[in-house]
Amino acid sequence: MSSIKLHELNQEVEELLEMMETAIEDGDEDTLNACKDTLEGMEIDINMCVSAYVESIKRNQIFSDALKAEIDTLKKRKEVADNKIERKKEFLKAFMQKVDKKKVETTTCSVTVRNNAEKLVIEDEEQLIEYLEFNAKWCVKSKKSIDLKELKNLDFSVPFTKKEKTQSLLIK
Fold first, then answer.
1. Are 170 and 115 in contact (CB under 8 A)?
2. 167-171 and 110-115: which strand pairing?
3. In terms of CB atoms within 10 Å, which end of the chain has fewer, N or C?
4. How far is CA 44 from CA 39, 49, 119, in A?
5. How big is the chain by its Cα radius of gyration, in Å?
6. First to last CA, the chain
């Protein structure tokens, strides 16, 4: 039996319940008893439909669980592939730096080692906030946070920070 059968059975039960409600309101004992007998007679059909519907739900759950397992497997495989790509890019960048090549162009690809913008790295945030409160208050947004944009614009060297120069690989 399919879920459509259960929906049809549901509609029949709703109609019987409406008839029973009307019979109660009208005081029609004969109709009420006939509806009760019909509902009792439908019990086997109801049980079979419910059982079939539950089996359908269980099959869908098994399918969903299998899909989740496949997704987890694919995520792991993707992570491995992404790590392999990053390692290969880092090796290629290191090789190009070693042979002092900034750019390589062939008919199939173009590879460039480019300099990234300087990055400000905070080495000790607590001491930096304390230092800035006395020397550059405008860089401290609150007791716990720093306005990095303002900090980068300072004309003097700031302790507890360092500027980092990095390079990246651009592959086309």
1. no
2. antiparallel
3. C
4. 10, 9, 74
5. 36
6. 57
User: Residue ranges per domain, the chain?
Assistant: 3-76, 110-171
Q: Which structure tokens are listed for 19? A: 């008839």
Tokens of 148: 């990095």
Q: Each residue of 132-143: pLDDT tens digit? A: 776 766 766 665
Q: Could you tell me which of 63, 62, 48 has the C-alpha nearest to residue 9?
A: 48
Residue 164, helix vs strand vs coil: strand
Residue 138 class from Cβ within 10 Å (0-12 exposed, 13-18 middle, 19+ buried)? exposed
Distance of alpha carbon 78 from alpha carbon 63, whole angstroms: 22
Q: CA-to-CA distance for 137 and 116, rounded, in angstroms?
A: 29
Q: Please, what is the angle between helix 29-41 and helix 43-98, to 10°?
A: 50
